[in-house]
Design brief:
- This protein is α/β, with parallel strands linked by helices and 136 residues long.
- The protein has one domain: Aldolase class I (TIM Barrel, Alpha-Beta Barrel), CATH 3.20.20.70.
- Helix content is 25%, strand content 22%.
- Strands 2-1-7-6-5-4-3 form a seven-stranded mixed sheet.
- The longest helix has 11 residues.
Length: 136
């Protein structure tokens, strides 16, 4: 399973993820936490000190809730590694980076369909600016 970073595809290191239900009882620091796309980011704040990696699940390409969770985690002060896990495509990669993700875990089939050059090219696309609300 490849890990998409800004520089290359890398092999995903063996990571023993814990779930939100297991985090309170988990021992040690530098834990990896895997959260579903309906997670309340604020509920994770008490665990920031023991979590080195948060993997946010993307159950489908059209499910963008993980982007919102990533932004919220960064706004709440999470400074560890954030990974998008699952159904992400190269065209979504610039948005993932903009939301605070450090990397994206994809399956081998996606890596075959969309080689690293395609992910890298997506980061060079100019995204349209959001419309700013005019002052009245």
């Amino acid at each position: 399973m490849p890990l998409v970073t800004e520089h290359a595809f890398q092999d995903v290191p063996d990571t023993a993820y814990v779930t939100p239900e297991e985090i309170a009882g988990a021992q040690g620091s530098a834990l990896a936490l895997s959260v579903p796309s309906d997670t309340d980011a604020a509920a994770l704040v008490p665990y920031f000190g023991k979590v080195a990696l948060i993997g946010i699940e993307f159950p489908g390409f059209a499910d963008g809730r993980g982007f919102s969770i990533a932004q919220r985690l960064r706004a709440l002060g999470y400074t560890g590694e954030l990974r998008a896990r699952g159904h992400i495509i190269a065209d979504q990669y610039p948005h993932a980076l903009a939301c605070g993700f450090d990397a994206v875990e994809i399956d081998d089939a996606m890596a075959d369909r969309q080689p690293f050059a395609q992910w890298q090219a997506a980061t060079r696309k100019v995204l349209p600016p959001y419309r700013k609300k005019k002052a009245v």
